[in-house]
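Re: the request from the purification team.
They wanted to know what the chain is likely to look like in 3D before they choose a buffer screen. I agreed to run a prediction and write the result into the notebook, where they can find it.
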Amino acid sequence: MPDSTMSDNPLPETTPADAPVRFDTKVALVVRADLAVWQKLNVTAFLATGIAAAAPDALGEEYVDGAGRRYGRMLGQPMMIFAADRDQLRAIRDAALERGLTLVPYVAAMFATGHDAANRAAFQAEDPDSPDLVGLALRGPKKAVDKTVKGLTLHG
């Protein structure tokens, strides 16, 4: 007779869809506060795609509606969006590099370009010690990201 305390199913119990999920990583997008609204939105969108590309393991599954139509995947964890000034962005970049976080940059010169190769050239032409940052995306261990963005306020 089988032991009634043993399960025939070796898979872990599933978590209810509404149960809170704890992530060991965190994503933070930091956007310069003095930009025009369209620029803030543009920078935020590009930075989010940079994190998705750098961390494909963080992407969730595709979405399927009630009729069975399939939609694209999104990052499976929240992204916090913070406001910063020019000096704060540089300090965050330096701290993120020091902590080894995944880092995605956006510089002001990229607003004048029209494609990815031109964006990379504009970024490479920046002073590596003092780029004109307008946005950064960070991903890494939760505590390290929290320390890196400590003192910033959420973008409003």
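For the purification team: The longest strand covers residues 133-141.
Please add any questions underneath this entry.
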